[in-house]
Amino acid sequence: xxxxxxxxxxxxxxxxxxxxxxxxxxxxxxxxxxxxxxxxxxxxxxxxxxxxxxxxxxxxxxxxxxxxxxxxxxxxxxxxxxxxxxxxxxxxxxxxxxxxxxxxxxxxxxxxxxxxxxxxxxxxxxxxxxxxxxxxxxxxxxxxxxxxxxxxxxxxxxxxxxxxxxxxxxxxxxxxxxxxxxxxx
DNA sequence: CATGGGATTGACT
DNA sequence: GTCAATCCCATGC
Length: 185
Prior knowledge:
Elements (H helix, E strand, L loop, with lengths): L2 H4 L3 H8 L3 E4 L2 E12 L25 E6 L3 E7 L7 E12 L1 H8 L11 H8 L15 E4 L6 E4 L13 E4 L13
Helix pairs in contact: 3-4
The structure holds a DNA duplex (13 and 13 nucleotides).
């Protein structure tokens, strides 16, 4: 994946990332769920402007934004749009394709659909931590590569309190690895 | 410097 | 369906 891919409008990138592959070391999965965030709407962290925390959201497209949620979970985002625009795609769920035994150890779960079916789950399964914040998704250690685009179902974003009505969630239709609640088909 | 809230998950009723 | 765990950082005094 190159920088031009991520430099486009965040809604396009969010849709196109479904079907792509995320790899970290020996563990990898196909993206089955994403959400778009943009500085112009209040649910985006960049909405408050440039702070030490949000600085990365305005950085070079293709940069990783990894932050801690609810004091416990690390969430993985891909910074989008041209440098200077605060926008990112939240990677919310994967279909595991490599390193499944490692994922089972890290997650303490056996079932395949429990390994990466949520934004906090997939970072645990891939061992992605806050130290990977601001690293490049073009060069690794976290890498995103192209895949086959599946049929997409669009819905509203999950777990937010502001701008809840925007249909900015993109899921692979019928996938068992999408997080709950599943969107209507 | 103190406080409060959050792009979640899993255990429990 | 309800609820606690737990930490980064923005905000306000």
